[in-house]
Amino acid sequence: GESVGLHLPTLSVQEGDNSIINCAYSNSASDYFIWYKQESGKGPQFIIDIRSNMDKRQGQRVTVLLNKTVKHLSLQIAATQPGDSAVYFCAENIEWESYIPTFGRGTSLIVHP
Amino acid sequence: KAGVTQTPRYLIKTRGQQVTLSCSPISGHRSVSWYQQTPGQGLQFLFEYFSETQRNKGNFPGRFSGRQFSNSRSEMNVSTLELGDSALYLCASSLEQRGGYNEQFFGPGTRLTVL
């Protein structure tokens, strides 16, 4: 399958562990944030989003935390599974001003059985 | 419902040639965006089309162009290829992108290699 590249930070975890993927965003005016997952051979897929009026949002096995003070996002994946192995991107946007998100560089998550 | 499809999946060209990539959005989606993905620069926005009109454009040279047809299918063209154009080109479609968030659905991409 397609690989995104060889220049990404990598997080290696054991199956069943919790994973935390971090992202620093660039624009203090951004008010909408998205996490995407990109598996080998596929395009990015929406996982979860959060707006700037929230600090935390939970989905199924995933939680996104937003710290606007330090412009930091994190994605927490509970009970990580081999199928979670992928590249994870955060994206930022100024909602209602632009509909083209700016993507971060991505983090490669490797889950060992 | 079928997802976003892109053709071809793989392409090898030489410097100076031109290339055309094709994207068929999800049925009913009218917005199509194109992105270039490279190890060094990550995911970068190229342009977005809606109802056959280019609505937004990223910071790429004029060698990169695109168009959208009445059935929402889109093509992008790169002329006078350079080695640095080697990348994964991703197409994304959404129902509408006008204020607020409309989820983008990505295709699998076209891997272009320029020799």
Give the key terms.
heterodimer; A: mainly beta; 6-stranded mixed β-sheet; 4-stranded antiparallel β-sheet; 10 strands; 0% helix; globular; disordered N terminus; B: 115 residues; mainly beta; 7-stranded mixed β-sheet; 52% strand
Main beta sheet strand tally, sense and closure of chain B: 7 strands, mixed
Please trace the helix and strand order of chain A, writing H or E for each element.
Answer: EEEEEEEEEE
Q: Tally the helices of chain A: what do you get?
A: 0
Mean pLDDT reading of chain A? 90
> Which structural class should the secondary elements of chain B be placed in?
mainly beta
Uncertain runs of chain B with pLDDT below 50, 5 residues or more?
A: none
Number of helices of chain B: 0
Helix content bin of chain B: under 10%
Oligomeric state of the chains?
heterodimer
**How would you classify the helix and strand content of chain A by structural class?**
mainly beta
Radius of gyration of chain B: 13 Å
Number of E-type strands of chain A: 10
Shape descriptor of chain B reads: globular
Radius of gyration of chain A: 14 Å
Describe this structure as you would to a colleague.
The complex is a heterodimer of chains A (113) and B (115). Helix content of chain A is 0%, strand content 50%. Chain A has no helices and ten strands. In chain A, strands 1, 3, 4, 8, 9 and 10 form a six-stranded mixed sheet that branches. Chain A has a four-stranded antiparallel sheet with strand order 2-7-6-5, with no helix packed on it. Chain A is globular, with a radius of gyration of 14 Å. Chain A starts with 9 loop residues before the first strand and ends with a strand. The model of chain A is unreliable at 1-6 (pLDDT under 50). Chain B is mainly beta. In chain B, 0% of the residues lie in helices and 52% in strands. Chain B contains no helices and eleven strands. Chain B has strands at residues 5-7, 10-13, 19-24, 31-38, 42-50, 53-57, 64-68, 74-78, 87-94, 105-106, 110-114. In chain B, strands 2, 4, 5, 6, 9, 10 and 11 form a seven-stranded mixed sheet that branches. A four-stranded antiparallel sheet of chain B has the order 1-3-8-7, with no helix packed on it. In chain B, a hairpin with a 3-residue loop joins strand 4 (31-38) and strand 5. The chains are: A mainly beta (113), B mainly beta (115). Chain A binds chain B through residues 2, 4-8, 32, 34, 41-46, 49, 89, 93, 95-96, 98-100, 102-106, and chain B through 4, 33, 35, 37-40, 42-45, 48, 56, 58, 88, 90-92, 97-104, 106-109, 111.
